[in-house]
Write a structure and sequence with these properties.
Helix content is 24%, strand content 25%. The chain is built from 11 helices and 24 strands. Strand 11, helix 9 and strand 12 (333-337) form a beta-alpha-beta unit. It has helices at 2-13, 112-115, 124-129, 172-185, 207-211, 217-225, 231-257, 278-283, 308-325, 356-364, 391-404, and strands at residues 33-35, 41-45, 51-56, 59-64, 70-74, 81-90, 94-110, 133-140, 159-162, 189-195, 294-298, 333-337, 371-374, 416-422, 426-432, 438-442, 450-451, 460-463, 469-471, 473-477, 480-484, 493-496, 507-509, 518-519.
Length: 523
């Protein structure tokens, strides 16, 4: 049904829209949160030439619907406010959205670990019962839908006040992020959930994202072949239009004669949810340009065999969404989760199996401005791709927002490898986010990290010029780590936790955040 719907929308987009009443996108509902510090856009549809008035918090802004029946205004910039107020839109009809707050709005997106609901986390019954926060609001884009073309609206959804009754099916990572940030700042938080388990990154990326990353030219070429808005795709879509016309004729004849109904023509390039742009078109595009503070992203398992190419796709995703939202002089922060440890541990010191390379690509994504990463290789479980401890995930993401948005002096990450210096028999490693000092840590469930008494660092490997990796001795020296092995006399490279499940990896900083896996070589 989605291919045909996408085509019908494509035809309708070329014609002016006539609406009997003023209408708003589905994301505008009572109990919503508007983004503070930004001239928030409010938009919708009405009769061509109709005058529309938008009122909120004592301000009044007017607009006129254009030749396509679209109108848009910007509200005055506002400070955070927990007071319940109404947003009123008037034209031929009157719409009143009640209980509207002003705070920070975050999109929660990705695959199943972002979709994972509160009702299925560790201590779920207790956590859900305590989730009574009038300053946190939840919106879920419903269903798992795709579209061949960008949709002007998302399929539906409602804003709900966070409560034990509303939170059970909402993203646990998003909720725990909001809970921590709201508790530390008092600022209202709105969460826009749009996620789909098992999906790759490509269908979440808009066309402009691919086109701005030269390394993704092969995907860009594929996108252009099936995009009717560019010359390269027009021939394909003309053929598809003719196929739909033939199908319509055959369908009418089949209904009259009773013969089997003909199959709906497949939309070119959008045969499943893995196609570039297909999910973005349906489940994200219609949210823009709703004012947001940033994005929380937890995805990668379905791209788990990739390395640096995933970094390029992250560039496309981040840059593409920022381009579509176009919030000038108001940075959109993009915080993501590095994949957890999973499956059986690998005892080969060279590692490199499973998700080692994609974790490296995720770390590389920190080079994109205004990004942050939560490292969780200490909370996964070997037999479950869905770690039930989402509390630590949300809180570690929230640390970045507390620093960047709330301007608090907090340590946002565990140690991130910065550089190495080789001595005769050892290598000294230097890290970012190690100013508080380093420890051998122990993480047990939801409990805070503790210092391991007489603990020894594990999961470090070292190599000489022969590029053969050996398990190494590693010790902490202030905010550095010294690595050596009796089997390597002239070391040139070190790897740490460089495997699918680096069980036992235990380097932390003193605030209890784990070091990210890394390698100093590029072999």
């Amino acid at each position: 049904m989605y291919p045909l719907r996408g085509f019908v929308v494509f035809l309708a987009a070329a014609m002016p829209l006539a609406q009997a009443d003023v209408r708003l996108p589905n994301v505008f509902k009572s109990h919503m949160v508007l983004q503070r510090g930004l001239g928030c856009p409010v938009w919708g549809w009405a009769d061509v030439g109709e005058h529309v008035t938008v009122e909120f918090s004592g301000s009044r802004v007017n607009a006129t619907a254009d030749e396509h029946g679209r109108w848009r205004i910007k509200l005055a910039t506002m400070e955070a406010n927990s007071k319940s107020r109404s947003l009123v839109i008037s034209g031929s009809n009157r719409i009143e959205l009640k209980d509207v707050l002003v705070g920070d709005v975050w999109i929660c997106s990705g695959q199943s670990n972002m979709e994972w609901p509160m009702r299925s986390v560790v201590n779920a019954e207790k956590e859900v019962a305590a989730a009574d926060h009038t300053g946190i609001r939840l919106f879920d884009v419903p269903g798992h839908t795709t579209s061949a073309l960008p949709q002007e609206d998302v399929p539906g959804g409602n804003w709900n006040v966070c409560s034990p009754q509303s939170v059970g099916n909402f993203s646990a990572v998003g909720y725990f992020f909001a809970r921590h940030f709201h508790a530390e700042t008092g600022v209202p938080v709105g969460l826009l959930g749009t996620n789909w388990g098992g999906t790759r990154i490509e269908p979440w990326v808009p066309a402009v994202g691919f086109r701005n990353v030269p390394e993704l030219k092969s995907i860009t070429d594929q996108v252009d072949r099936f995009d009717p808005t560019v010359p390269a795709g027009k021939a394909t879509w003309t053929a598809y239009a003719n196929a739909v016309e033939r199908w319509t004729t055959e369908l009418k004849a089949a209904i009259k004669t009773g013969v089997p109904l003909p199959s709906i023509p497949a939309t070119p390039g959008y045969t499943n949810s893995g196609q570039p742009m297909a999910i973005y078109h349906s489940m994200v595009h219609g949210l823009a340009p709703f004012g947001i503070r940033g994005v929380l992203w937890y995805q990668g398992e379905s791209n788990g065999g990739e390395g640096v190419e995933y970094f390029h796709k992250m560039q496309a995703l981040i840059g593409g969404w920022r381009n579509v939202w176009n919030q000038e002089n108001f940075p959109i922060y993009f915080y993501f989760v590095q994949l957890a440890n999973w499956q059986r541990p690998n005892d080969n010191p060279a590692g490199g199996d499973g998700w080692a390379r994609i974790r490296d690509a995720q770390t590389q994504s920190l080079t994109v401005p205004n990004t942050g990463m939560a490292v969780i290789t200490d909370i996964g479980v070997a037999n479950d791709i869905h770690p039930r401890n989402k509390q630590d995930v949300g809180q570690r993401l929230a640390l970045w927002a507390l620093r960047d948005v709330a301007k608090k002096h907090v340590v946002v990450s565990g140690p991130l490898y910065r550089e190495m210096r080789a001595d005769t028999n050892s290598i000294r490693l230097h890290f970012d986010h190690a100013d508080s000092g380093l420890i051998v840590g122990v993480k047990d469930g939801l409990k805070p990290t503790t210092v391991a008494e007489n603990g020894t660092l594990t999961r470090f490997a070292i190599a000489g010029e022969d590029k053969q990796l050996h398990w190494a001795n590693a010790r902490i020296d202030g905010d550095t780590v010294i690595v050596s092995s009796s089997e390597v006399t002239k070391p040139v490279a070190v790897r740490y936790a460089w495997s699918m499940n680096p069980e036992g990896a235990n380097l932390y900083n003193k605030v209890g955040l784990p070091a990210s896996p890394f390698r100093t070589d590029n072999w």
